[in-house]
Write a structure and sequence with these properties.
Layout lengths: L1 H13 L6 H5 L5 H4 L8 H8 L1 H30 L3 E5 L2 E5 L7 H11 L2 E4 L10 H12 L5 E7 L6 H10 L2 E6 L19 H10 L2 E4 L13 H16 L4 E4 L5 H9 L4 E5 L1 H5 L23 H11 L6 E3 L8 H4 L14 H10 L7 H12 L8 E5 L3 E2 L4 E3 L2 E3 L7 E2 L2 E4 L1
Helix pairs in contact: 4-5, 8-9
Length: 423
């Protein structure tokens, strides 16, 4: 240590004064009275004259560290100033599976605990294919208590323009759901030949009725993670070309390709995005083993796709809005050798959406996504009620009653960071 100190002092005294010192001397009464000896100068000053490369590296690392510290302080300040209370127009869910029978006692209460207006999907057994079917299903959902429901029909190869016109005239039905046959739960009655449904779609375009589309190829030779992309590339473009004025909602989109498709399409094409696709990617299906309650269709995709969905949802674009695709199944049908597809999010959907938006500092965009864009696309009035979202942790039960069984919710036994209150 003594040797190193002695060597350092000798080294410092051996360094010549900086170039230009003589010029400064002409304006002073002596160098030592205006500037300390070089041995007392900061190390980077000494290094500058003897080892310029090392000095450059010193300065670079110092600046880098300073920028990192400033960035950390900025992020910390941003988190400290992020809102912990948010009041928005009462939200809507434009894609919900209530199921039927005794299960409605659970699903209806949870759905309307989160949303003022809910679109009911028609994939029952048998499906909702006529205006009368829709009227009866509405009555079962409401159970004597009027609800703000948007009813839908199930499109089949046999759906005629007359069926569409009757449903529209009675006022209950605002949309028709297209399922490719075999694509998802209870889709066996879906479309097998797209040419057969074009007359019905043209009547829908004429009336202003919305077509809701489950966009996945049913070609079993196509990789399951690519089926959405293939559908929009090969099938959706043909539907739009055949009926260019048709209003279309690309339901529960899951890929960057689908996001770009919707962006590039006309104003008559929009999309719903689920909370679970904003928060999770396909790794979560296999975390520590098979997670059957994370399996849904369309299946969770890559992290790049999840980020594209978050960017779309938080962009402020009127083309994207909330549709939970909350899809409950009895626990024994999920936890089996051939489990059903569907993630149940009705219990805390708006809290999950708030988490997703908060994660990218975009809570100011949540109201448009959850409360305005969907109503505007469907030509429905915006809700007048308000809700409050509080950044207050709430526990999620392990399960809920579901007819004679149980249903396991998303994040069962865990917590969600936001809580919804009705004002």
């Amino acid at each position: 240590l003594f040797f190193l100190c002695f060597h350092w002092l000798s080294f410092c005294y051996s360094i010549p004064h900086p170039p230009g010192a003589a010029v400064r001397l002409s304006h002073t009464r002596g160098f030592l009275r205006t500037q300390p000896p070089l041995m007392l100068q900061p190390p980077h000053t000494i290094l500058h004259y003897r080892f310029p490369i090392i000095a450059f590296l010193w300065q670079y690392l110092s600046m880098k560290k300073k920028k990192e510290e400033e960035a950390f302080k900025g992020e910390k300040k941003k988190k400290m100033t992020a809102p912990t209370t948010l009041e928005i127009t009462a939200p809507n869910d434009f894609h919900h599976h209530f199921r039927d029978g005794e299960a409605l006692q659970t699903t209806v209460a949870l759905a309307f605990g989160q949303f003022q207006r809910v679109l009911a999907m028609p994939n029952l057994v048998p499906p909702v294919v006529t205006a009368e079917d829709a009227r009866k299903y509405r009555e079962r959902i409401e159970g004597g208590t009027p609800r703000d429901l948007v009813m839908t029909l199930y499109l089949t190869d046999k759906t005629t323009p007359a069926v569409i016109e009757e449903a529209w005239a009675k006022g209950d039905v605002k949309a028709v759901k297209l399922y490719p046959a075999g694509a998802t739960t209870n889709s066996d009655f879906g479309i097998t030949n797209y040419d057969d449904c074009i007359p019905a779609l043209k009547k829908m375009a004429e009336l202003g009725m919305v077509l809701c589309v489950h966009g996945e190829s049913t070609d079993q030779s196509t990789d399951i993670f690519d089926r959405e992309t293939i559908f929009y590339k090969d099938i959706m473009v043909k539907i739009i070309a055949a009926v260019p004025g048709l209003k279309i909602v690309c339901e529960h989109i899951t890929t960057r390709d689908a996001v770009e498709f919707v962006k590039a399409a006309g104003d008559n094409v929009a999309a719903t995005i689920t909370a679970h696709h904003l928060l999770h990617n396909r790794n979560d299906i296999f975390k520590g083993g098979i997670r059957p309650h994370m399996y849904c269709l369309p299946v969770l995709k890559r992290e790049d796709d999840r980020r594209a969905l978050v960017e779309a949802a938080t962009s402020g674009s009127k083309k994207f809005f909330a549709g939970t695709d909350s899809a409950p199944h009895p626990v024994e049908r999920k936890e089996s050798s051939c489990g059903c597809a569907g993630v149940f999010t009705a219990h805390a959907a708006m809290s999950f959406y708030a988490e997703a938006f908060d994660s990218v500092g975009a809570l100011d965009k949540l109201e448009a996504f959850a409360s305005h864009n969907g109503s505007d696309f469907y030509n429905l009035p915006r809700n007048s009620n308000k809700v409050r979202l509080l950044k207050k942790q709430q526990a999620i039960p392990e399960s809920y009653d579901f007819a004679t069984s149980k249903v396991v919710p998303l994040r069962a036994g865990g917590n969600v960071e936001w809580t919804l209150e009705w004002i």
